[in-house]
Amino acid sequence: MRAITVASHLLVAAGALALAGSASAAEIKVFISGGFSAAYDTLVPAFERATGHKVVTERGPSMGETPQAIPNRLARGEAADVVIVVGYALDGLIKDGKVTAASRTDLAWSPIALAVKEGAPKPDISTVDAFKRALIAAKSIAHSDSASGVYLSTELFGRLGVLDQIQGKLYKSPGEPVGRVVARGQAEIGFQPVSELRPHPGIDIVGPIPAELQVVNVFAAGLATGATEPDAGKALIAFLVSPAARPAILESGMEFAEKK
């Protein structure tokens, strides 16, 4: 019953946005990184059904050196209407003239969590000291080449005083979800936001890293400066932040940052 109610609310919300937006159906091209993908994948079909718009999705990291990283794709001149990435990467795209500043919209954030291969022992990470011991004891540690991995490898591990001890067993996954790396046994433990780990089978999510070590990286959406369907793109962004979308976002493992 709850699933039917949520779906009904999504359709109503999307339908209202369709009436307020463009009259004709459009094809919206979206570049999206992993953090918001699980919620997005749930929400987009309802938006399409209610509006008649078609959403074409291209995926890549929020940052990094790989060709599929979204800033690199936009720099090569690839076209998009809507861009959804971690907030500070979107700010960089705004600065570079790739995304319009007025369209920037915060969506949600997801805590960084630790995962192990399904059935493997789960280390204690309930306190900062326990977390440090788990890092030192692990035989191999995977992290992404995007926002969470950059934070862990360039800031947190050094701040905890363990970087020298674990440097040789760190693996930066170039564009591949950390969940897949852990599931096939390439790394004993892996870190990525909860919302990016949940979609992948073959792993157990031990839990978020201690609260005092978390970083709040909000994922945000914006219109590409070269958007060919800006009105439809605005309607999609408005739908993603509508009250009806909140249950799907929370279910994906994301949270809403408190506004100060």
Describe the structure.
This protein is an alpha/beta fold and 260 residues long. The protein has helices at 2-20, 37-51, 70-75, 87-95, 128-137, 147-159, 163-166, 178-183, 194-197, 230-240, 246-251; strands at 27-32, 54-59, 82-86, 105-109, 112-117, 141-144, 170-173, 189-193, 203-208, 218-223. The strands form 2 sheets. It has a 5-stranded mixed β-sheet with strand order 2-1-3-10-4. Strand 1, helix 2 and strand 2 (54-59) form a beta-alpha-beta unit. Helix 1 (2-20) crosses helix 2 (37-51) and helix 1 (2-20) runs antiparallel to helix 10 (230-240). The radius of gyration is 19 Å and the shape is elongated. Mean pLDDT is 91; it is low at 1-8 and 18-22.
What's the N-to-C terminus distance?
A: 36 Å
Overall geometry: elongated
The fraction of residues in strands falls at 15-25%
Question: Whole-number average pLDDT?
Answer: 91
| Proportion of helical residues | 25-40%
Count up the helices.
11
Low-confidence stretches: 1-8, 18-22
For the biggest β-sheet, the strand order reads: 2-1-3-10-4
**Helix and strand run:** HEHEHEHEEHEHHEHEHEEHH
Rg over CA atoms = 19 Å
Structural class: alpha/beta
**Biggest sheet character:** 5 strands, mixed
Write down how many β-strands occur, each being a DSSP E stretch of 2 or more residues. Answer: 10
